[in-house]
């Protein structure tokens, strides 16, 4: 099982980024997938999740700002992040909780700064 995040970077406040997580080594479509983030000095927190049926759930802090989606044909999880704020600065991780174990990507850094 492998999860590889991409799309992070440095962006100015108010800007946008689109993160992707490419999954391999398991059948992607039946599983809920989740984005987490961890800011410096803080605990890792759930950002958004999407079920196999594309039912979505968001942390209150990102509702209306972030959009999670999945492309089962490409085994890819996405996170569209708009109106970014300095407090969105964190390492963003994707997670897959499978019957055989709990898997995380290596993370992608998002820095929101002017």
Annotation keywords:
114 residues, mainly beta, 4-stranded antiparallel sheet, 11 strands, 0% helix, 54% strand, globular
Task: Tell me the major beta sheet.
Answer: 7 strands, mixed
Proportion of strand residues: over 45%
Global geometry: globular
What is the average per-residue confidence, as pLDDT, rounded to a whole number?
A: 97
Helix-strand category = mainly beta
Percentage of residues in helical conformation = under 10%
What pattern of helices and strands is seen along the backbone? EEEEEEEEEEE
Low-confidence stretches: none
Give the N-terminus to C-terminus distance in angstroms: 37 Å
Q: Radius of gyration, rounded? A: 13 Å
Assembly state = single chain
Q: What is the count of DSSP helices, taking H or I runs of 4+ residues?
A: 0
Count of DSSP strands:
11
Tell me what you see in this structure.
By secondary structure, the chain is mostly beta strands. The strands form two sheets. Strands 2, 4, 5, 6, 9, 10 and 11 form a seven-stranded mixed beta sheet that branches. A four-stranded antiparallel beta sheet has the order 1-3-8-7, with no helix packed on it.
């Amino acid at each position: 099982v492998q999860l590889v995040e991409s799309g992070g970077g440095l962006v100015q406040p108010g800007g946008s980024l689109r993160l992707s997580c490419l999954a391999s080594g398991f059948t992607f479509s039946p599983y809920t997938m989740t984005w987490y983030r961890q800011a410096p000095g803080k605990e890792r927190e759930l950002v958004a999740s999407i079920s196999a049926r594309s039912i979505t759930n968001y942390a209150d802090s990102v509702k209306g700002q972030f959009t999670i989606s999945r492309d089962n044909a490409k085994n890819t999880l996405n996170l569209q992040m708009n109106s970014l704020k300095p407090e969105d600065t964190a390492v963003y991780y994707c997670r897959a909780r499978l019957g055989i174990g709990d898997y995380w990507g290596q993370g992608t850094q998002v820095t929101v700064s002017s």
